[in-house]
Amino acid sequence: MLSINLDRETEVYLAEIIAQENSTSEELLKKLIYQHWQTLKPRQTLAQRRGGHPKNLLQDAAPDSSLRENRKQIINARTTTR
Fold first, then answer.
1. Under 8 Å CB-to-CB from 65, ≥6 apart: which residues?
2. Residue 53: enclosing H or E segment and its boundaries?
3. pLDDT-based confidence at 19, cuts 50/70/90?
4. Quick one: how many helices (H) and strands (E) in the chain?
5. Rounded to whole angstroms, how far apart are CA atoms 49 and 56?
6. CA neighbours within 13 Å on the CB side: how many for 40?
7. Do 18 and 12 contact (CB within 8 A), yes or no?
8. How far apart are CA 39 and CA 31, in angstroms?
């Protein structure tokens, strides 16, 4: 159990949020703590969220080919040779 003392102004804010959200202070605090905890975790890249890069596309790729400047060089080299 957690017990906190809020100043009057913060109590008014809390009461307004609870009324708007139609929830309890416990639910609201859980939600806020979870949201803040999520911001502390490093964000996953799109590829990580989708399960990683397809292995067959990367089997011959250089380890640093994902760097922006290297991708630009590879694209420029391919477009000038065509």
1. 71, 74
2. none
3. very high
4. 5, 0
5. 18
6. 6
7. no
8. 13
pLDDT digit string, tens, across residues 25-39: 899 999 999 999 988
Work out the average pLDDT over 58-72: 78
Contact call for residues 71 and 65 (beta carbons, < 8 A) = yes
**What band does 58 get if pLDDT is binned at 50, 70 and 90?**
low
Structure tokens at 78: 């391919």
Is the predicted pLDDT of residue 12 greater than 80, yes or no? yes
Q: How many residues does the chain have?
A: 82
Contact 38, 44 (CB under 8 A): no
Amino acid at 71: R
Please give the single-letter amino acid code of residue 56. N
Give the pLDDT confidence score for residue 47 in this predicted structure.
81
